[in-house]
Structures are given as C-alpha cells and as structure tokens.
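Could you join me in thinking about how sequence relates to backbone shape in a protein? We need material for that, and I hope you will provide a protein of your own picking. Label the sequence line and the structure token line clearly, so we can match residues to local backbone shapes. Would you write everything just below, so we can both look at the same thing?
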Amino acid sequence: MQFIDFKKEHFKEDEKTNDFVIEISKDEIGFGEIRVQERKDDEIYEDAEYEITDNPVKVTIRMKKPADIRVNF
C-alpha cells in the first residue's frame, strides 16, 4: 500500500458548508479504495472522520476541520 501525506494548509474551506476540502487527482492515487488517517502526536496516525466524493477524474476529501492527514491507496 502506498500513501501521500498532506498538511492542514492543503485544505480549502468550503464557505457553503463550513467544511474543509482537499482534491486529489486520480492520476496520483489510482482508482482503488482509499483510507484517510489523521496525524496525532509522535507521528501516530489514526483513522480520521471524513467524507469522500469520488468522480472519474478526482477524489474530494471533506473534513470538519483541517488536519495533517495520510491518504493510503
């Protein structure tokens, strides 16, 4: 399994819903399932609370607050 780490600065605020979103191209992560983990203290990653919108070109991850995350694919 591969992963990409993202910093909380990568998220953009959705002013309509007050959620924070990040979009990732399918070219980067492929077309399989993904899992999102949030970074906690001391480089420990735990499953995050998130919502995914998947379309043919990109994946959109939506969270209530921005966080440093790891996207496993």
User: Anything to note?
Assistant: Residues 3-72 form one domain. The chain has a mean pLDDT of 95.
